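User: Can you model how zinc ion sits in this protein?
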Amino acid sequence: MGDCTSQSDLTCEQALESLHEFLDDSLTEEMSQRVERHIASCDYCSTSADVERHFRVLLRKKCVQKAPASLRQRILVQMTSLRIEYQG
Ligand SMILES: [Zn+2]
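Assistant: Here's the modeled complex, given as structure tokens:
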């Protein structure tokens, strides 16, 4: 089979770094596709993206005026650790 050194594969770190811009639709088309592909194949980043999207919906509806970064971080950690426990 093919090698796994394809330059188009992002690491989780890279994907998460670009997540905000990805959701803001401010990445280049190529980069956006790379992030999308990573999220589609990675449970961890998929969960992170879901949390981030959910927050954005809430913010847009103004259910949450300003979600503190600490709260966002806490929920993210909880969701990802839940997912990890479920898998493990
Ligand atoms: Zn990932």
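A couple of observations from the model: Residues 12-87 form one domain. Confidence is low (pLDDT under 50) at residues 1-6.
User: Helpful, thanks.
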